[in-house]
Known about the structure:
It is built from three helices and no strands. The longest helix has 28 residues, at 40-67. The chain is an all-alpha fold. α1 (5-14) runs antiparallel to α2.
Amino acid sequence: MTTDTITLAEELESSGLDTAPAKRIAKAIHEHQSEHFATKADLAELKISLMIGNAVLAGPVVALIKLI
């Protein structure tokens, strides 16, 4: 989810807020949200970590199944 800062600023302005404060508020919201959402690169890195973790666990799991 991303914030459309132009639309948000326009909505704030239409509610009576002056242009400069509306733009600052929209920018602050956008920056805050940008810091708290995963990027495609973050998800790709996580996927690789999970694949490695699964590969590492596969050996012991197979060994335990053979013991049963």
